[in-house]
Design a protein that fits this description.
Number of strands: 9
Largest sheet: 5 strands, parallel
Radius of gyration: 32 Å
Distance between the termini: 58 Å
Length: 877
């Protein structure tokens, strides 16, 4: 649709036009949005897109349309969309420019799909700095999946850009395409508008037949026009049963096509076979089929084809389908052969695709070529296109085993692209042909990976160990390590060496670990090496943000959030967990959001919002309980129990914490049992269950001796103090404080609180205040309101009535993403560099910074370097 084209003559559509005008005006004001136009073929979606383009005289208009012949070609749609602005790619940050050029086939650099999405977002953001941008996408359901996913990613992040994205698709395809919301359903024209349309184009059609036509078409504008063109007696009142719209439309098109000269039909067929191709390609292919150049004007005047921006398209998908399907099969194959010859030198992917379309049965040579095309697509970040190409190659495979191996490779590519459901189905299809063991190597152990992330960890371990011995060596070590992690999830007893391995305890800082080898956070915390694990995660996450693979980013953020929570950086933990949950919506997966909700539930419980904590942990349990993923289940119980401890409900606390340490209970897990032991012991002491408290103490002592973890030693002394008489308590509390790691502020403050409570009870009030005041301050910094209030009450009872319990004035809290932006800006990164790391646009970064300055009372960016993010956002100078 040409930019700023003449507006189409629309009958009716007042509601739709008002909505489009409103969104255009909002985009002019800097409030971007995306809208999905949903309607049947021919209903008028394309006309509404043209209307929007005609109203956007002050916009830069970019458009693309899904093309059946390019559905399997990675980023073909994105290339079509960005074709007019390819010269702006070099102005992007170098890493983004490299991955976008690679995705578009303009360079050799590869990148995963979310990084490509960030590059497109940045490009649109920078284009909109000059003037608003209107993005028009027609027939989204026919767009290649990498382009579709990229545009879906972008559509979620343009709220603060002068960008309007309008997307048209068919009903029933929206859920498969990850549609932007809101949606606008485009329905058939009303009676009056339909009659006006027919009267304008076919004034001789009788009123009786017009009414019959309206009944048959349901007000579909294209059907009204096409059927009325050759309307005959079949539209009369003697016909009792309604006619099916599809066949009647095709019949109408057939009559038009048969009336065309042979050369015009040939050109139309070539254009239909390669819809959206540039004019030169279509002309060269048509010439190979015997159409001379002098016949071109006649073909372009046939009203079937449109020439715009150097590309030739068939007017509408229904017309294209009629052109393609009405052609003789031999003619269709000839068109694809001609297109393959044209693309032979310039575009190997399209060459292979069109050559595959010529196959009338199994063909190993073509299947092998499609495998190579799939590898190229995967190298450019088009994992889902690679999956489709491998799948097509499997369909062309004469040999059952070869077909199964290609299906297995398609499954692995689908998993890499985030389509977990298809990965499962493809792997199952491969298994059905030759058995699971036979395709394990081709799939790179995918069966176990799928089960570990989404299914039963026990089955996952079996599959991982089964495939580890037969797959390529590069996969074998990975699978064996993941099997060990599955054993941990299954609460199997592991020796110290195994725990050290899954905590990456013996791997030096700065080592480039693959994401699947990063520490399991809970194990690192149990061993007391959480700071070491945090550095490893932070290094790897930084690499994933700039280099990929983003596939693992969400899970890694969840694990880092657990570490940050333990180290008292709760706002950072919330930011990581929230981002991970958002990424899971883009990439898919269930384990990641389950971990994220569990961490958010823990922090929410520590801050005293019991109801919200319960809801968040319920989301985690919905994943973990039926799948027997015990660490997440135990973590949810831990969050609830710890919240109850802080709220002074020891019975509820014991009810939640005791199952974690009870073998056979569905919430039991050995690592979490150690981590929660001191809290369970505190609850047990408060309700008089001293026998259980001593059992928890024994567990802590054994772990402290075997691991050497300082926190376990400190907690052992704390529980001993709770169980001891007054003559021994002071020495034990002092020992607990001496052993407590300074980098765990909540744990240390809780020891000080209990020490201060004991000192007050034995009437040593000045010494009690020495413990209670720093504990109170630490709780306030963390936002641990239940413990802060408890410490405040103790301070008053210890004799300090100067207002220590009054909550200090609290500044407006930064949102999770604002905190991320503030921290990165404080390091000196530019808006573009921050945007690249957080997968947002530079303009969104700028808007966040303006909010941050207002909330923190800062004059500008330079002040961020003086902010103490750990202690209430205070200025340090």
């Amino acid at each position: 649709m040409p930019q700023h084209s003449t507006p189409p003559h629309l009958f009716g559509r007042d509601r739709e036009r008002r909505e489009l005008d409103r969104l255009l005006e909002r985009a002019r004001a800097g409030a971007g949005s995306a809208l999905l136009l949903v309607g049947e073929p021919g209903i008028g979606k394309t006309a509404l897109l043209r209307y929007a383009a005609s109203r956007a005289t002050d916009f830069r208009v970019l458009d693309c349309r899904g093309v059946p012949s390019e559905t399997e070609l990675a980023f073909a749609g994105l290339h079509q969309l960005l074709w007019p602005v390819l010269d702006r790619i070099d102005a992007l940050p170098p890493a983004q420019a490299a991955v976008l050029r690679g995705a578009l086939g303009l360079g050799g650099h590869t990148g995963d799909r979310l990084l490509i999405g960030v590059a497109v977002l940045t490009l649109l953001s920078e284009l909109s700095a000059d003037r608003p941008v209107l993005v028009l996408i027609d027939d989204l359901y026919l767009l290649d999946e990498p382009s579709r996913n990229c545009l879906r990613f972008v559509s979620r992040r343009i709220a603060e850009e002068s960008v309007l994205m309008l997307v048209a698709t068919h009903p029933g395809t929206a859920s498969e395409t990850g549609e932007p919301t809101p949606s606008l359903v485009i329905e058939g024209l009303d009676v009056h508008s339909s009659e006006q349309l027919i009267a304008e184009h076919h004034p001789t059609l009788s009123p009786v037949r017009s009414r019959r036509l309206l009944l048959l078409t349901g007000g579909n504008p294209l059907a009204l026009l096409e059927l009325s063109r050759d309307a005959g007696s079949e539209l009369g009142p003697a016909v009792n049963s309604p006619l099916a719209l599809g066949p009647r439309l095709r019949a109408s098109f057939d009559s038009r096509l048969r009336a065309l000269p042979v050369a015009d039909r040939t050109v139309a067929l070539v254009a239909a076979a390669a819809d959206g191709a540039d004019a030169r390609t279509v002309q060269q292919a048509a010439a190979l089929l015997g159409v001379p150049a002098e016949k071109w004007p006649s073909a372009l005047d046939s009203d079937l084809l449109h020439l715009s921006d150097g590309r030739i398209t068939v007017g509408h998908p229904l017309i294209r389908a009629a052109v393609y399907e009405s052609a003789d099969p031999l003619a269709r194959r000839a068109a694809h052969v001609a297109l393959a010859r044209v693309y032979a030198e310039s575009d190997p992917d399209r060459h292979d695709w069109h050559l595959a379309a010529t196959a009338s049965g199994p063909d190993e040579s073509i299947a092998a070529m499609l495998d190579i095309a799939a590898e190229r697509a995967g190298a450019r970040g088009g994992a889902l296109s690679a999956a489709r190409l491998h799948r097509r190659a499997a369909a062309l495979s004469p040999d059952t085993t070869a077909a199964a191996h290609r299906l297995a490779r398609a499954a692995r590519a689908a998993w890499d692209g985030g389509d977990i459901e298809s990965a499962r189905e493809l792997l199952a299809a491969a298994d059905d042909r030759v058995g699971a063991a036979a395709v394990g190597a081709a799939a790179g152990g995918l069966a176990g990976l799928l089960e570990l992330g989404l299914g039963d960890p026990e089955r996952a371990r079996h599959m991982l160990l089964r495939d580890a011995g037969s797959t390529a060596p590069r996969f074998g070590a990975e699978l064996r390590h993941l099997a060990l992690r599955a054993s941990w999830a299954l609460r199997d007893p592991l020796d110290p060496g195994a725990l050290d391995e899954i905590a990456a305890r013996d791997i030096a800082d700065g080592t480039d670990l693959p994401p699947y080898r990063l520490p399991i956070a809970e194990v690192a915390i149990a061993l007391g090496v959480e700071s070491h694990a945090l550095r490893q995660y932070s290094d790897c996450i930084e690499r994933m943000r700039t280099e990929g693979p983003v596939t693992w980013l969400g899970y890694s953020l969840c694990q880092r959030a657990i570490l940050l929570c333990t180290l008292g950086r709760w706002d950072d933990a919330i930011a990581d967990a929230s981002e991970a949950i958002t990424l899971a919506a883009d990439f898919g997966g269930l384990q990641t959001p389950a971990y994220g909700y569990s961490t958010l539930g823990l922090i929410t419980a520590l801050r005293g919002d019991t109801a919200a904590a319960f809801d968040l942990t319920e989301r985690s349990l919905a994943f973990s309980t039926p799948r027997r993923y015990y660490p997440i289940t135990a973590g949810a119980f831990f969050a609830r129990g710890l919240g109850a401890v802080g709220a002074g409900r020891p019975d509820d606390a014991f009810e939640a914490l005791d199952p974690i340490a009870t073998p056979g209970h569905f919430a039991h897990h050995p690592t979490l049992a150690v981590l929660s032991a001191a809290d369970a012991a505190e609850a047990a002491v408060r309700i008089g269950r001293f026998d259980r408290a001593r059992g928890y103490l024994d567990r802590l002592i054994a772990h402290a001796e075997s691991s050497g973890a300082a926190w376990a030693t400190a907690d052992s002394h704390r529980v001993r103090a709770l169980l001891a008489g007054d003559d021994a308590a002071e020495e034990l509390f002092a020992a607990a404080l001496a052993a407590a790691p300074a980098e765990r502020p909540l744990a240390r403050a809780r020891i000080q609180l209990q020490f201060g409570e004991w000192l007050r009870r034995v009437r040593r009030r000045p010494e009690a205040l020495e413990q209670l005041r720093p504990a109170h301050n630490a709780f306030q910094r963390l936002g641990a309101h239940p413990w802060s209030e408890r410490a405040g009450r103790e301070i008053i009872m210890a004799g300090d009535r100067t207002g220590s319990t009054t909550n200090p004035q609290v500044i407006e809290v930064l949102t999770a993403q604002e905190l991320q932006v503030a921290r990165l800006a404080a390091t000196g990164l530019t808006n573009r560099e921050i945007a690249a790391r957080l997968l947002i646009s530079p303009r969104t970064v700028g808007n966040h910074l303006s909010h941050i300055f207002a909330k923190l009372g800062l004059a500008g960016r330079g002040d961020l370097g003086n902010i103490d993010f750990e202690n209430g956002f205070r200025l340090t100078t």
